Each structure stands twice: as C-alpha cells, then as structure tokens.
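S1.2 Input.
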Amino acid sequence: MNDIRRTILWVIFGFSIVLLWDQWQIHNGRPATFFPSPTAAVAKPVTAADQPATVPNPEVPQARQLTSAAVDGGVAAIQAAAQLASSLPHERVTFSTDVLKLTFDTEGGSLVRSEFLRHHESHDARTPVVLFDESKDRVYLSQTGLIGGKDLPTHKTVMKLLSSERELKDGVDTLTVQFESPVSGGVQLLKTYTLQRGSYAVDVKHEVRNVGQEAVTPQVYLQLVRDGNKIPGGSSFYSTFTGPAIYTEAKKYHKVEFGDIEKGKADFDKESTNGYVAMVQHYFASAWLLADGVQREIFVRKVSNNLYAVGMIAPLQVLAPGATRVLDARLFVGPQEEKQLEALAPGLELVKDYGWLTILAKPLYWLLDKLHGFLHNWGWSIVALVVLLKIAFYWLNAKAYASMAKMKAIAPRITEMRDRLKDKPQQMQQEMMRIYREEKVNPLGGCLPIMIQIPVFIALYWVLLSSVEMRNAPWVLWIKDLSTEDPYYILPLVMTLTTMLQTALNPAPPDPMQAKLMWIMPLVFSVMFFFFPAGLVLYWVTNNVLSIAQQWVINKRMGVPPQFNLPKFR
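S1.3 Output.
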C-alpha cells in the first residue's frame, strides 16, 4: 500500500504538470497538447458582465442588421480605400500627459507610438515602456477612417492638425488632439482625441460632415494593426499570449492566434451590439471600445506579410447633404491594471489572462492587492499571502503531515516485512494491511489535502505571472524587480535546498526506484525556477519553508524522531 500511495502522489504531481502545460499552450493561443478542445477559442467567466459600459454614448441611431458578407465586404473596403489614399507629405506630432506620451501621424491622424511614463524597461530605468510603435523592429498601430463611399477619408488620408497645446499643463485635466481631413468623396472627417490626467483611456470622437451634394452612408472603422512577432525578452521556460482578443457577451473572452488568421480559421462573433476588440501581450494591452447597444461588425484580417489587424466597423445613418453625424469611441492603451480595466468596460479586465483558474485567481489577486495596501511592498505581500493560505489550509496540511509522520514511524517495520516476505506477495499484502490497521494508518491520508490545494497554488502562479504590478517592484536588497530573474540566483538556490530538505523529511518509499524518483523530480522542477521571475520563486520558497516548519512540528508532536531520508543512487 505504501508503494500505491507514493505512486498515486507522483501521478497527481505528473498530472498537475500536464494540466499546467496544456493550459500554458491554450494561454498562448495554441491548441492544447494533451486535451485539445474543438476550437482555439477559450471562454472565460466574466465578473463585470452586468456592469454598465462607461464608454460615451454615440450620437448614432440603431444600425442596420449585419451579416458575415457585410463584414467581409467591410474589410475589403478598408483595404481598397487605403490603396486609393493620398501620398502627400505628412508629419508626426507628440503629445504628453502625466502617464502617456503619444505620437500621432497626420496621415490619417493615426496613433503610431505610445510611451508609458510610469513604466520603464527592466534593463534601463530611464527608458519608458513602448507599446504602439512603427520602426524597423516593431509595427503596432491604431488606425481609424471611413468606408462606405468613393474616396472617403481613411487612415491613409493626410489630415491637418488643429491643436496647438502639446503637453498637459498643471491644473488642467484634459488635453485635446484634433485632426481635420480635406473634403474627400463629398465628406470631411474631424477626428478628436481627448487625453485625460492619470488615464490610459483616450476618448476618440469621429465627426463626419457631408459637404457634398449627394447623400452618403459612411461607416467608421476602428482597428489595431500589429506584427506577429513575440515580444522581446520572453522566457523559454514560461510564455504568455501575444495577439488579438475579442469579447462579446454572447461568446465571452476569446483569443485569436495569428496562425489561425493566416489559415482563415479564426473563430469569433462577427457582429454584435456589445464588447470590444484588443491586442494583448504580457502586462500591456490596447483595445477599442464602443458603447453597448451600438451595432458593430468585428473583423480580424491579415494586412500583409506578418502583419495582422483586429477591429470593428460601426455604420452611421444615411447622411444627407449638410448633415453631420458623430461616433464616440474609446481607445485604451496601457498596463493591465485590473481595477482600472474593470472600470472601463465589462470584460476588459480579462485581457489580464489568468488562464483556466480565473475564478480562483481573481480573489487571490484581490487579497494580494489588499495586503499591498497595508504593507506597501509587493514582495512582502506575496509572503503574507502565502502565510494566509497556509493558515487557511492548516488543518488539511496537518492531516497530510500527520499521515506522513505515521508512515515514517512504521517505515522500518514495513521494510523489514517486505524483505522477509518478498517471495510471498499475497502474504506480504495481508501483513501490510494488518500493520496499517494496528497502527491506524491510512496510506492515502496525505493525498486528498494535497489535491485540494493544487488548483489554488496554480491560480496564484498565474496571478503573480500576469500582474503588471510585479514589474520593477523591489523586495529587499538585491531583488529590484520581482518580474525578472533573481540576478544572483539566491532565491532559486534557497528553493532547491528547501525542496531537498522537504523531500528528506518525507518517508522514503520502500521501492528503490520510487525513492530515486522522489529526489530526481523535485530537483528537476527546482532547476526550472532558476529562470522564473523572482516573485514566483519567492512565493514557492515561502511555501516550502512554512511546509517544512509545519511538518517538523507535527513530527515532533507525534514523537517521530528527526531523521533524513537521503538519496541512494547506487
């Protein structure tokens, strides 16, 4: 039975690794390796689904019913309009608030570069994080324009900058950036960006004027264009999703893999009256938001080689000569700070992807955030959270460690009996069961408590991996950034040592092969953590230390003498 118990524990451990790997694959937009689902889309529970959208209400009536053919036609129209665009000279202009530095191109009034003034690169505190960019290394843009008529203003139309203020002044809460297109196709487009103090959400108003002699039926498109490259500096030992994401109330949050766009296999709602489109990467995201009730066509498309777009098309009512229509939208470009995302639109917080255990991860993040509000240090907040989890699971762990202590106490008798009856397996099994009954030992007593806790610690793993608050957050002394590797590998070494000590305190399996595996598997697992973010390693070290302390106390209370089961690899 001892062999069976140990085997079951290793099966649980191995199955947990398999689940982690599968969800890692899905988290990055790839199909699961071991348990593939019929589609690549991943539905997520939404906690903010009943909240009203805070996107400004657009001044447009209910749009016509849309079809898949209309979506495809809209995408084709965007491509055709861009090809007919003007090639006049254009310039780039930069505007700054207290949190954002944005660069616009007068070609289309497009947003071509964004810098986050409160988030810097890990390797250089003087270099702000850049999301939108158009350079030799990166293409990531926000573009809007009109389709639905001949030669209407698009993101390729050179526009006139009307704003003079380039920086948010002290005592002022908003900064306006305004572009005006020339009359094209009888229509003039006035595009106004409103930047707000302390906000990563930009209000964007499209004012469409019919200055021609004929009625027109324009449509406003909003799109995010990005190359398909992974973000630089990623780890080989863990990965996060990069690519488009779409949310609607009908289908919830789902990611779209670049490879599926290439193959034409992207699965998403092509029409809706709610939701958003986004481009997601580790820690940061961009998203176009429209108010609930506004009909929109949703599309993803391949723009060119290794260049992809996700966007929405919002029809306007027929525009008579001399009439004006306005469509209000909101562009989010910033860090994945959960509370700010929840306040902007229903489901937007899901761009911060916790994987398959969102229902557990969200309350864990909430508790971590509350601890940080008290401790003002994310490292100590991680330690405190693990302490609280160990307290919450104290009695479960106590049962598991008590079972291990009993098993350790009777291990010499079991070993002697196995050696004596090794040629009589049936009698050996009966004798083993008699010993367990006499000593009141349940060989499976440590399994259930461990199984119950596995999902919680996996959820905490995703919380620490996904939270932008860990970026550039110091802990103590040499740990200056909890989102990067320990520069001196002190925490991974401590983790390895504590893992070995914990293994030594456990009862050794009678079977020599199992005894070797009992040492090899944790060591291999520990080596991986040398390349993990310091915050993740800190959480695991804290858990190890507390587990060792609890196991030691229980062994002492039960009269089990201190003894270490050292490996024998001969």
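S1.4 Remarks. The chain has a mean pLDDT of 80.
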